Task: inverse folding
């Protein structure tokens, strides 16, 4: 069988799997709406009753919600009813905006005395709320309504049951986790000419570099190009499968020459498809990219991903990812698709020609120089009682 025929077979299998997953996602979305819209009926209402007694005042809960998520209006009614039934104070409710995706709202909630701040939305909302809570000691709860729900996935929180997620936010235990910070030191010039270089120099002098928080994985190269090329309308319809579709279009992208320095070690150079800098490693679809990464170990886990040989290299790489998620490592040297793992507390990266960079699925831009560091035990999160 020719490689074109094999590729057609693979495409057909992927298409069938995508259709099945779309159907599953549709059924889950319908069940999610049913749970939200009838919180007082049947077992759903009983699930909201806390297992512990609250004192006369109770904890003040603040919610920071992304209003673009279609289930938010009904969820607002549900969470207010839940707090009232538990004898808690009237909760604080904030909504994100394009100008402020949640950092300012979170800081306002803390200033008003919130005992816990619950992020309602996708990974971008979670990142913004986390940024507002870092260093405060105020715990963050999560009601995931996004595409990837990356942090919730790594914390083993309910992904398709907002009422169960609310219960965890109200009665769960607190634990501290690390956060990562990515800083862009030099952006790629859109136009490579003296005028553009002068503008870049002026920006470097007047605008201090900004730190971008990440809770799961930051990356450059293939993964960031995949995120940047994802169709938003398709993502709204089929969820994280849209990233897979975008990834198929970038399989034949070029390998990138990068220079990397880990902590105080000498800088090294290599060519690869993608460089991942992670705080934890679970992704949708049962994929574990960083099997050794722990949320609270004080380290960044780094994966250098490279492939050769076209589709064959990517197929081997995909197999290796599946195996390492199951705890099996392939250490054979002769591989056309491979992932090399290491760890550090600080990483410095220089990219010749520039590359897309993403943090937890949000595109930062195209950069030529960046650094990343870990902030140990900087954030408190609410998780299920063990």
Result:
């Amino acid at each position: 069988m020719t490689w074109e025929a094999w590729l057609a077979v693979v495409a057909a299998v992927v298409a069938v799997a995508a259709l099945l997953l779309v159907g599953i996602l549709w059924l889950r979305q319908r069940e999610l709406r049913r749970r939200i819209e009838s919180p007082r009926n049947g077992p759903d209402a009983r699930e909201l009753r806390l297992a512990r007694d609250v004192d006369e005042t109770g904890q003040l809960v603040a919610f920071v919600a992304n209003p673009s998520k279609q289930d938010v209006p009904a969820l607002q009614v549900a969470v207010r009813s839940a707090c009232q039934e538990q004898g808690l104070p009237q909760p604080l409710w904030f909504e994100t905006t394009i100008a402020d995706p949640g950092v300012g709202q979170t800081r306002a909630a803390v200033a008003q005395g919130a005992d816990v701040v619950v992020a309602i939305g996708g990974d971008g909302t979670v990142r913004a709320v986390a940024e507002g809570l870092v260093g405060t000691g105020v715990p963050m709860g999560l009601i995931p309504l996004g595409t990837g729900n990356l942090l919730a996935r790594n914390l083993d929180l309910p992904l398709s049951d907002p009422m169960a997620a609310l219960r965890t936010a109200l009665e769960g235990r607190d634990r501290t986790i690390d956060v990562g910070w990515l800083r862009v030191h030099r952006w790629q010039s859109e136009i490579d000419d003296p005028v553009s270089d002068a503008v870049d120099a002026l920006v470097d002098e007047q605008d201090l570099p900004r730190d971008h928080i990440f809770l799961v994985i930051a990356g450059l190269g293939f993964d960031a190009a995949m995120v940047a090329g994802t169709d938003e309308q398709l993502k709204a319809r089929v969820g994280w499968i849209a990233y897979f579709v975008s990834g198929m279009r970038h399989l034949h992208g070029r390998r990138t020459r990068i220079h990397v320095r880990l902590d105080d070690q000498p800088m090294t150079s290599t060519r690869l498809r993608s460089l991942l800098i992670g705080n934890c490693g679970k992704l949708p679809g049962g994929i574990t990219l960083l099997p050794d990464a722990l949320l609270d170990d004080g380290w960044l886990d780094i994966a250098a991903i490279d492939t050769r040989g076209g589709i064959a290299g990517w197929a081997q790489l995909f197999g290796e990812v599946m195996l390492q998620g199951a705890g099996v490592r392939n250490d054979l040297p002769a591989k056309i698709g491979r992932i090399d793992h290491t760890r550090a507390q600080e990483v410095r990266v220089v990219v010749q020609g520039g590359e897309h960079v993403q943090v937890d699925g949000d595109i930062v831009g195209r950069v030529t120089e960046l650094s990343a560091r870990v902030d140990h035990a900087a954030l408190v999160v609410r998780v299920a009682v063990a």
User: Anything to note?
Assistant: The chain is about 35% helix and 30% strand. Residues 19 and 330 are 32 Å apart (CA to CA). The two ends are 52 Å apart (CA to CA).
